[in-house]
Automatic annotation (TrEMBL):
Single GO term (MF): acyltransferase activity, transferring groups other than amino-acyl groups
EC number: 2.3.1.-
Residues making up the signal peptide according to the UniProt record: none
Keywords: Acyltransferase, Transferase
Gene expressing this chain: ysnE
Source organism superkingdom: Bacteria
InterPro entries: Acyl_CoA_acyltransferase, Bact_Acetyltransf, GNAT_dom
Limits of the N-acetyltransferase domain: 6-157
Protein name per Swiss-Prot or TrEMBL: Putative N-acetyltransferase YsnE
Length: 157
């Protein structure tokens, strides 16, 4: 459960703290999956793709979790959902997920898609997505079937 106050804000300019969290996320994902099964993007790659970055900061201003909304069809793809290791289990990931989904709905998105891993290290993330109403789906966009990936969709209409 979240123990202290926090804010979730869109990142509209350079932010070294957010970039550091995203670079750690990138390194973690690359270390845990073969390159052909790893779809993580750098912070610059996210920005170049048109994704909108968001960060959850605790009462002290520390970045505790991040996520991104990347335009896809008539909806969004969730990218780079990551909670820093020391802050896991406090509800920050769920708070970012809820905020991103509400933002997507407000912007008129009809659905939210995501890709995540099938390995045990992704079990908590998959459980969070299922509890938010996501359902497994076929690979979407440029993704292809991969035993190390699962694909999910949530109808936002």
């Amino acid at each position: 459960m979240i123990q202290d106050c926090f804010t979730i804000d869109a990142i509209t300019g350079p932010d070294t703290a957010v970039d550091l969290v995203l670079s750690r996320h990138f390194a973690d994902m690359r270390a845990g999956s073969p390159e052909e099964s790893c779809h993580v993007m750098t912070s610059q790659g996210l920005r170049n793709s048109g994704a909108l970055l968001y960060a959850l900061r605790d009462h002290s201003g520390e970045v505790c979790a991040v996520g991104a909304l990347k335009p896809f069809k008539d909806g969004v793809e969730l990218k780079s959902m990551h909670t820093v290791r020391e802050k896991r289990g406090l509800g920050y990931g769920g708070a970012v997920l809820h905020s991103l989904l509400e933002t997507a709905k407000f912007q008129g998105a009809k659905a939210a898609w995501l890709e995540t891993g099938t390995q045990p290290g992704f079990a908590a993330a998959r459980a969070m997505y299922f509890s938010a109403g996501f359902e497994e789906c076929q690979p979407f966009g440029s993704y292809t079937a991969d035993p190390l990936s699962t694909y999910m969709v949530l109808n936002l209409s």
